[in-house]
Amino acid sequence: MLYDLLLLGGTVIDGSGAPRMRADVGIIDGRIAAVGDLSAAQAQRSLDVAGLIVAPGFIDSHAHDDFAVLETPAMAFKALQGVTTVVNGNCGLSLAPLVTQAAVPPPLNLLGDAYRYPTFAAYRAAIEAADPAVNVVAMVGHSTLRVRHMGTLDRAATADEIEAMRADFAQALHEGAIGLSTGTFYPPAAAASEAEIIAVAAPMRECGGVYATHMRDEGDRIVPAIEESLRIGAALEAPVIISHHKLVGQANHGRSVETLALLSQAAQHQDLCLDCYPYAASSTMLRPERIALCDRIMITWSAPHPEVSGRDLHDIAGEWGCTAHEAAVRLQPGGAVYFIMSEDDVQRILAFPDTMVGSDGLSKDARPHPRLWGTFPRVLGHYARDVGLFSLETAVHKMSGLTALKFGLTDRGAVRAGAVADLAIFDAASVASPATFESPAEPPIGMRHVLLGGRLTVENGTLTGARGGRYLASSLVVTSAG
Ligand SMILES: [Zn+2]
What we know:
about 30% helix
C-alpha cells in the first residue's frame, strides 16, 4: 500500500468522544485509508506529528460566512482555527434566494450587500466557483424569504406570500439546502407567527432537513420561546437546533439551569441540539433597545461613523453630550458587541451534552467579536485545558463528531478509515486564541496543520494557498434530485 500522505507519531482524538490513542494516519485519494501503526508503510510524503493531537477538522455549526466564502475564499479566520466545514444560513439570514439592488434591512446587511442569487442552486454554483478553503453547507433563511416576497415586514404573511415562500424553500431543499432557519428575534421576522413558520417549512416533512432558530426571546420570555421552537420542530417532525443558546440581561442570569432542564426533558422524545459560542458577550446589529440589558456595549461598525469602531457606546455618548440611546440611534446602521451574559450560564450551556460549538462570527465587521478568529482554540485551550470544563475528547466531539451527526454530514467529523481526510492537528499544551475584544483579528496559536480532503490548507500555522472546499450534501435531506 502506497499512501499519499502519512501522519506519523500523533495522538488521535477521533471525534466520537472516545479516549485518545497513539496512532498514525494514512491518507489515499483524500480519504483516511488506515489508522494504526503505520511506521513501516510507504508514502509519497510523511509528516511528523509526534506530540500533536490529530482530530477531525472542525465543523462550525453556526456560521454567517454566506458571503465570506465567496468574497474571501482563503477563509483565514476559520481555516487557521482548524475549521474545515461551515454551516451557513443561520438566524433567518441566507444569501439565497434573493436578488435585490436595494439596501437590505438589518440584520440581512450583516452578511453583506450582494444579494444576487435568484436560487439556492445559483448560490451553490457560486461557492463551487469560488473554491473556498472550507466546505460549506447552508440553510435557507426565513427572513430572506420574507424580504423576497413581502413588501412590508412588520406584519404576518398572507396565504399567497406563505405559498410563495414555501415553494422557494421546497425548491432550495431540492437544490441542496439542509433546512430552514428563522430569526424571529429580528424585525424582518418578528411579526411572523408560529403557523407561518410551520407552513413555510412544511416541505421538510417530505424531504427532511433541520430547523434552526434564533428564538424570539433570549431573556425574560425565553421559556415560551423554547416551547414554540419545540412545537415547530414537532409539527415538522424535524430536528430542532436552538441557535447560540444564552440568557440575556441580569435578571435572567442563572436561568440556564431551567432552560437546560426543559431541553433535556424534551430531548427524550424529540431530536434537538444547541449551539453555543464560548464568550459571555454577544454581537449583532446595533439595537438601541438593548442598552438597558447590558453591562457594556462596544461598537463594531457604524456606517455614518466608521471612526468609532471598537469604542464603548457610553464613551461616545459622553463625548457627544447625549444619552447612550441617542448615540446608538445616530450610529445606525451599525453593529455592536453586547456584554450581556453570565459566565456561569456560558459554561453550563457549553458543557450540556447536546451542545455543539459554533462561532456565530461576523467577518464583515470592522472590529469583529473575537469569536470570529478564536472560538475553536478557545474551547480547546481555555475551557477544556485551563478551566477543565470537560475533557479534550469532549471538546473535540462538540466541534466535529456531534456536529456531523446533527447535520447529517456522512464521513465527516471522524478520524477513522473511510472518512474524508478533513483534519485539524494541534498542540494540546499550547492551543489558544489570543483574540480579544480590543484586538480581535488574531490568529490562533498551537493549531499546527489543517487538512481538507487530504490536502494541507494550513501547514505549521500558515495558510498554504490550497483550498478545494466543496458544497456538501446532508444525509438528512432526501429529495428526488438526490
Ligand atoms: Zn442569531
